[in-house]
Amino acid sequence: MTRTAPAPSTADPIAELREWLADNWDPDLSVEEWWARLGSSGWAAPLLPVDCYGRGLNRSDALRVAQTITEFGALPAPMGMGIALVSPTIATHGTREQIERYIPDAVSGRLGWCQLFSEPGAGSDLAGLATRAVRDGDVWIVNGQKVWTSGGHLADLGMLLARTDPTVPKHQGITWFAFDMRQPGVEVRPLREMTGNTMFSEVFFTDAVVRDDARIGALNNGWTVANTTLLHERSGMGARSGGQVFLGARAGTVAGDLERRAGDFVRTPRSTSRAANDERRASPAATYIALAREFGKASDPVVRQRLAQAHILGEITRLNTERHKAIRAAGGDIPGIANFSKLLMGHILRHNRDLGAAILGARVTLHAYAAEHRDSLDDAPGGRAVQAVTAQVLSAQALPIFGGTDQIQRNIIGERVLGLPKEPGDLSRVPYNELPKNG
């Protein structure tokens, strides 16, 4: 992918983006061709530094970029870990050669990524991971197991955390690798969720191989690199979506979407009244307000109170983003903002889960667990909007767990932000191979 240098910055990057889209969007391009064009311009991953295939924007403006691409009617940038997690991690810790090797294929969606972090015995205590990588010349031999691997069955590459020195304390003997998922010795078993989707997999390694030049960061310094990955993961989870909708094109060579026509993945927005558009922009609870009216619950005092709370929580998220933007622009930061934001978003999802169920009543239990059955629910009361709410009801339990549980976020805030003492019985100084193990 040839890098296209950004044009001179304007006061509002969105004006520049709209002009670029008018000149470059072509629905007859293949997905691969369009994403290469988007990625080389910096608009696919605008949070990244300019010299790392980005635009150097803050998160608030990056969300506006994603929304603008969708509103223009173009195919959005490839969603997933390549842009959100891999690229900023490698931009921070990788060598220049690694930046040029991995980031172009990530921001253009040519290769898809997954996250090989959690294990059956190392979820909340991620530093307790047991997957081993043993050096053999210029390569490392990997054995072990991962679980809850998002997109593992569609990934070309994975962010692998492996234990490379078991004789030091657990946080100090971990290394971060860019790992080839399509090689002998890697078995991927997809996991089906109660939503009907298959987002996660479990992965088994048997004498799999990763080259030493695919190591990101220093040997045994993977915990520091992983914390950069987790920071971006939590920041993304805590950020407001900005209206971007996943339109179906999937990154990587495995999914088979790269050769398809880009325009086929763009849905024509339904025409809505100006008043409806104004309301949607005015309230983060607009979807639930509309459903409450449709289902005759708009005058229910309990539902009205919950709608007001949904609006307030959404506004708090927006204002936190704007406050962080202003502080960053002045050269400062808000310690723990990613952890606070993830906690807040988990609370919002649980609140909206209960709000949606209160509005829909028994209708919330009508859910299609397979893609081929979802069209049959289009004509049911509420249509696709209700399907989205039902799916959210089923999936709301996930965010407070993955990416670090709510309890982990509170520990981080207490210890690292507020300076409170660590929990008693700290084992962080004990060598990994001397730690007590479950029978």
Number of domains: 3
Tally of extended strands?
A: 8
Helix tally equals 13
Rg, alpha carbons:
22 Å
Strand order of the largest sheet: 1-4-5-8
Low-pLDDT regions: 240-247, 270-277
What structural class do you assign from the helix and strand content? alpha+beta
Series of secondary-structure elements, N-terminal to C-terminal: HHHHHEEEEEEEEHHHHHHHH
Percent strand: 5-15%
Q: For the report, how would you describe the main beta sheet?
A: 4 strands, mixed
The top-level CATH class of the largest domain is: Mainly Alpha
User: Which whole number gives the mean pLDDT?
Assistant: 89
**What distance lies between the first and last C-alpha atoms, to the nearest angstrom?**
51 Å
The name of the CATH topology of the largest domain is Butyryl-CoA Dehydrogenase, subunit A, domain 3
Categorize the overall geometry: globular
Structural notes for this entry:
The protein has 439 residues and is of the alpha+beta class. The protein folds into 3 domains: 13-110, Butyryl-Coa Dehydrogenase, subunit A, domain 1 (Orthogonal Bundle); 113-223, Beta Barrel (Butyryl-CoA Dehydrogenase, subunit A, domain 2), CATH 2.40.110.10; 272-404, Butyryl-CoA Dehydrogenase, subunit A, domain 3. The chain has helices spanning 13-24, 31-41, 59-72, 81-93, 96-107, 222-238, 274-282, 286-294, 301-329, 337-360, 371-374, 383-395, 406-417; strands spanning 113-116, 132-136, 139-150, 157-163, 174-180, 186-191, 200-211, 215-216. The strands form 2 sheets. It has a 4-stranded mixed sheet with strand order 1-4-5-8. It has a 4-stranded antiparallel sheet with strand order 2-3-7-6, with no helix packed on it. Strand 6 and strand 7 (200-211) form a beta hairpin. The longest helix is centred in the C-terminal third of the chain and has 29 residues, at 301-329. The protein is globular and about 65 Å long. 37% of the residues are buried. Residues 240-247 and 270-277 have low confidence and may be disordered.
